[in-house]
Amino acid sequence: xxxxxxxxxxxxxxxxxxxxxxxxxxxxxxxxxxxxxxxxxxxxxxxxxxxxxxxxxxxxxxxxxxxxxxxxxxxxxxxxxxxxxxxxxxxxxxxxxxxxxxxxxxxxxxxxxxxxxxxxxxxxxxxxxxxxxxxxxxxxxxxxxxxxxxxxxxxxxxxxxxxxxxxxxxxxxxxxxxxxxxxxxxxxxxxxxxxxxxxxxxxxxxxxxxxxxxxxxxxxxxxxxxxxxxxxxxxxxxxx
Length: 240
Known about the structure:
- InterPro entries: Asp/Glu/hydantoin_racemase (IPR015942), Iso_Racemase_Enz_sf (IPR053714).
- The protein is of the alpha/beta class and about 240 residues long.
- It folds into 2 domains: about 15-105 and about 225-230, Rossmann fold, CATH 3.40.50; about 105-220, Rossmann fold (3-Layer(aba) Sandwich).
- The chain is built from 9 helices and 8 strands.
- It has helices spanning about 50-55, 60-75, 90-100, 110-115, 135-140, 160-165, 170-190, 205-215, 220-230, and strands spanning about 15-20, 40-45, 80, 100-105, 120-125, 150, 190-195, 215-220.
- The chain has a 4-stranded parallel beta sheet.
- Helix 2 (about 60-75) runs parallel beside helix 3 (about 90-100).
- The longest helix is centred in the last third of the chain and has 18 residues, at about 170-190.
- The two termini are about 25 Å apart.
- The relative contact order is 0.16.
């Protein structure tokens, strides 16, 4: 048997570009390594605070993201993702620069989810900052501009802790924020037949949103499981 090299590290296909943060990352968060059923590569992007990326459109950070993404590929990543849905703004530039598949944002699932739903139903989005999610973010992810959007802005805990990068998170208060925002989204838009979670930090509460609304819930976790399955297809035993 012969094998071919060319990488520094092996056994992990997905490279994750991380914001520079200090808030807690509980299991389910994509930047808690215990979340994944497979190894991943991580790289923290210097200066990429939640405030700068979400509220200020990642201004001045494109070159740093491009450099760090290429470093992940050189290290061994076969595909690149990020841990903020607002980075859809960098999708085209990263895909062009990296030479590997790139999935910057959970929002990129909306187009496919709409195709799954029955007539008269459409996908809704739950975001960490409704006021910051612009038409440009949606267009970059090919999301229809009339897509219903709900947010956890102004509620108990979740958005404030993440966006202000606080060191302590009340898990129960955050769970209730997600439930309330999802219920409000569904009540205001009866034609919503599924929800995509924009924010990667919402994943630990996806099951709660599903239980509260009865709707399918898609997240960066569901997206990257699919993404990984193409980068490292399962090898099945031969025969019956």
